Amino acid sequence: MTTKKKEVKRRDFLKGAATGVGVGVFAAMGMYSYSDARKEMFPKVERKQKDIGVCRSIHVTNISETSWFDNATLIGDIKKGGGLLVNQYDYNWPPFGNGKGLGKGSYADGMAKIKEFLPDRLDEAWDVVLENCIHPENAGGYSCLVEMEEMDGNKRKFLLDSGWSYKWMDECFKREGIDTMLRNKEIEALFISHEHFDHYWGLPVTLKYDPEITIYIPEGFYEEGLQYIKDCGHKGEVHTVKNGLFEVAPGFATYVFPVPIICRVYGEQSLYFNIADKGLVSVTGCCHQGIIRFAETAYQEIAYENDNFHGIYGGLHISPFDDWDPKYDDLVISLGKYGFERIGCNHCTGVLCAKKFINAGYPVVEGTAQFRSKDTAYLGNGDTITFG
Amino acid sequence: MERYGTNYLEERKLVKRWSGPTPALLNLLFTLIVFYATWWFFHDPRGVMRMYTPYVGYMYTRWWLIVMIWMVYLFNFWPFKRKWLESTHPLTKGIVLSAVSVGVLYILIKGFFEGLLGNYGLAYFNPDQLVKLPGITEFFAVEYSCLAILMFAAIASWLSPAWVVAMEEEPWSKLPQPAKGFSMLICTFFLSTIVYFVTMHPHMGILYHPWQSFTSIAPPYWEKFANTVSGNFHVSWIMCCTVVVWLVETIWQRYPFNLIRHPWLRRFALFFGIIAISLAMHFFLYFAQELTWGEAIRGTRRAFAPDWRWLHVGEMAIFFLVPALFLHFYCGNWPKKFSMPVNVLVRTIITLVATIALYIGYYKVSHLFLGTQKGFSHPQQFPMIPMIWLVNIWLVNHWFMDNWPGWKMVPKTVEEIEADHVAHQAEIDDVRWSPSLGAGLGMGALAGVAFYAFTIYALPGLYAAVDILK
């Protein structure tokens, strides 16, 4: 009798305990998880304050920011090709067209048609491209020249990205004298921000003038992207930059962010310059990681002059297709807190976003809207900006 | 009077064709094959229709789920007669009922949302209206309208089943079909509309430039406490509600709310209890991300953005749904041998462990099979879509096909139905207040708090140790 009574009590206890666990868990979750007290649990972030040195100034020349000329055409291709998650090498865009139509391309097929012409006979390659690719006339590209002045007055030149269309980029390189600089080996390295078509597929245009140029690509390139460097006839060094900080020269470092990006691209490399007496300048290709993330990473990882964010140049990846989303307004609202003193944006920032920045009173450096750039709200093709 | 399918799910006996785990494994294999084939055909960016743009595929996936809930839970299979449900081959039933659900889905999207609302009410429900906006491309016109329609779906997929699970179909439970179904449909649709206007419409209002301040609250009222103007804050807790409704209905057997004897007190307690549990989940899953990835930063993109974190709460919640439904549909809601509270706790633990495994597995390999992108925070990646698509396949299999091929359906006798009711009531009556129960409740609550404290203490280390994306 006593035994039975004990069993019953133990059973009741278990029933209560099982119920109580749920009550306790959910009560704690609800009351603590979004309270201010939770912040005590956050991992303490210690600023690493890595010293990357300083440089005197940088001067950026916008070789081309028009990655494509018509949003509706590009995004129409993407829509009909299967959306933003399709492998970029499958769209049948230039230069990897195989003549099979939208969404049915392949790197191998496309490359087989043009390989013999790379990198020197780009006109002939482009003729083949015109026959086999979807909307070759819409391809443009993103590329800029960064001239850095060191503290002793020595000047060094670097190329960020190599655009997309062979034809358009060759015109732009000639317009800005990049062809001559490359031939003369004045430009010491090409940094590729990420594997996207509009930043990377114009690689042969750089190699046409300097096939031995040193190339830095971010970790995360796919097999096709790595093969492309070889197939383009590159004869110099290729460095795959690992995720995180990479010091290039006094006052100049890159940072690779492991971010997933549309069209099956992964990882982005952006540039930091520490300008003496001024502060940090961020130079980006597309900035898929986000400019705030880029700034916060700098704050945590490196030391820079006056602890000050001095400037931005490049694509800030807000509304590249004239699309909008309320979360982009979060950026417009919060960017002001970071105190950038000069904002030179273009490309995937989007015209609407640049206009919102201007309306918010941010120090946006406006452009001339020349050479097929669309609006003066940002720095267009051929425009320049100096920091320091 | 024709009962159509009233209580059909409860009054069918699913008999295993083979003993042991074979039927469950067979059905898992069968449904996974159907999932992958249909995923490739409809959604996969490398497939045929490529609807994973992503919002087009997402919208149809969410509304298909709701249409099936309407057909089964609200309309009890009306107008299909009980005899047809009991005597037709499961494959035929699956095909016919699925075809009907897809037909209703198409009429709803094209006729109601795009045609009626989009042309005569809110332009953003119709891409043809949106494309008239200067600068907007056809692609984003379609994506925006699909986003609006699927935001509505998120609410409806919580409220429609909640009316059956929590409100027990009242006050219309005694009405014959289709009056009962239409009553609940109109009521839940009306409530969904109100919730949509105060949670999602302001999001759409600031989607356009300039902000539509005279037709919506812009910037939205939640900006301060959500740390974003994005409506993903609401997507988060509403998705949790959608999941909790099903947890309550399946592995929790409506426990402990079923202990409340007063009908209306029980119904309201359950309805608002689902919301309360969901809010706890919503805040915790956001906190879990802060612990593993660091504090969110307003204005940034991807994994560090508050809007993405809120969205990811909803995505994490969906991972709970998959093992919970599998346990219920294919494992007979195992275990059943203990008291109801202990059974519920064991099932919850199993679901939790399976959820974590599924989450890790998904992010490790999904990009290899589903045509999605590697990484947690790709702007076009929504694990909710394949998860709900799989759930949809399971609902077709469980509701429309009586778990074929692993099971066959035999109608229960009147005596068996009565015995089920008695057994269920006995399970409820088994949980009675006693000093031992009270002591257990107190100790359990302390253990629950301790478990929570341990979890948030251990999460950063556990996350770092697993390193999912490598």
CA radius of gyration of chain B is 22 Å
Q: What is the strand tally of chain B?
A: 2
Which stretches of chain B of 5+ consecutive residues score pLDDT under 50? none
Strand count, sense and closure of the main sheet of chain A?
Answer: 7 strands, mixed
Could you characterize the architecture of this molecule?
The complex is a heterodimer of chains A (388) and B (470). Chain A starts with a helix and ends with a strand. Chain A is globular and about 90 Å long. Helix content of chain A is 33%, strand content 23%. The mean pLDDT of chain A is 95. Chain A has 388 residues and is an alpha/beta fold. In chain A, the strands form 3 sheets. Chain A has a 7-stranded mixed sheet with strand order 7-6-5-4-3-2-15. Chain B is mostly helical. Chain B is 67% helix and 2% strand. Chain B has helices at residues 8-11, 22-43, 55-74, 82-87, 90-120, 127-130, 138-165, 179-199, 201-205, 223-226, 232-249, 263-293, 306-330, 340-369, 384-400, 414-429, 435-466; strands at residues 12-16, 407-411. A two-stranded antiparallel ribbon of chain B has the order 1-2. In chain B, helix 7 packs parallel to helix 11 (232-249), helix 11 (232-249) packs parallel to helix 13 and helix 12 packs across helix 13. The termini of chain B are far apart. At the A-B interface, helix 1, helix 2, strand 9, helix 10 and helix 11 of A face helix 7, helix 12, helix 13, helix 14 and helix 17 of B.
Short note summarizing the structure:
Chain A is of the alpha/beta class and 388 residues long. Helices cover 33% and strands 23% of the residues of chain A. Chain A has 12 helices and 15 strands.
